[in-house]
Amino acid sequence: MQLSLDTHLGDSVQPFQRTLRAAIGCTGVGLHSGRKVSLTLRPAAEHVGIVFRRVDLPDQPLIAARWEHIVDTRRNTTLGLPDRPEARVGTVEHLLAALAGSDVDNALIDVDGPEVPIMDGSAAPFVFLVECAGFVTQGAVRRVLEIVRPVRVEDESGSITFLPDLSSVPVYEMDIEFPSSAIRRQHRLVRLVPGAFKRDLARARTFGFVEELDALRDAGLARGGSLDNAVVLRGATVLNVGGLRYTDEFVRHKLLDLIGDLALAGAPLRGRVVARRAGHRLNALALRALFADGTAYRFTPALPACAIRDGIAAPLAAAAAAPV
Predict the structure, then answer these.
(1) Does pTM top 0.85 for this prediction?
(2) For a tag on the chain, would you pick the N or C end, based on fewer CB atoms within 10 A?
(3) pLDDT of 235
(4) Would you list the domain boundaries of the chain?
(5) How far apart are CA 27 and CA 128, in angstroms?
(6) Which residues form the catalytic set?
């Protein structure tokens, strides 16, 4: 029996890079900005990675989805360019998680505002979009970031540990704990075998507390938040009609965020990630700590011999020339 290149061999990850078959878009509201935003996902060449393009700004600046471009982690992950303070894209984590969970390596993402639309607060609408666009297997072998030595980072609230693991797919483990009796302590482990992200995590929504709302909005956050795009709690009570999508939706969403944030490593992980009460700030610190230790990881295969400029591979030039 002959297998196509798109076939997953058992639990193994897709061995070749993939992009989208066609462009596809959506429109929604930014969770924090409250602004209407349109987004278009486009195919991209091999080795480009995931790149955002702010089509509403002069020169349409390109922002690679890389950990080096993280500029803010307050209740979301925001990417930006150091020499262009206006060139930012916020709340990228749900979309990045959907792309990672769907085995998409290369994509150009056009956005006409400062934030990815929040949709329903989960990654499911983005998984639906990429599945509607379809996939194309590319000729280049997929790069994998292999953890070869433990790395641990912690702060006053929690910790993240990267560990070597013999599994051919990433393994993520999360513990959370909140005073609310609607959450308390929750734990979940997921192996990202084909289909696991869509089945087990994609529909889990972001969440927050009514008691925090005024302070968040005073800080310029959560201006687009509503019961339509978040699980909202008042003390121990879930205010959303219909309640939760999973009994442990909260820890599932934290896993979703972790996968999206760690996708900023630029390649799928081969290893185990153990997170305790982690959020966007700690996720970013963990990536920085991992890449600060050159003995803790290796890329397999090594990056091909192509020019690198500003952290973006040269083939991006072809993707950037695509019509808006």
Answers:
(1) yes
(2) N
(3) 86
(4) 16-320
(5) 14
(6) 280
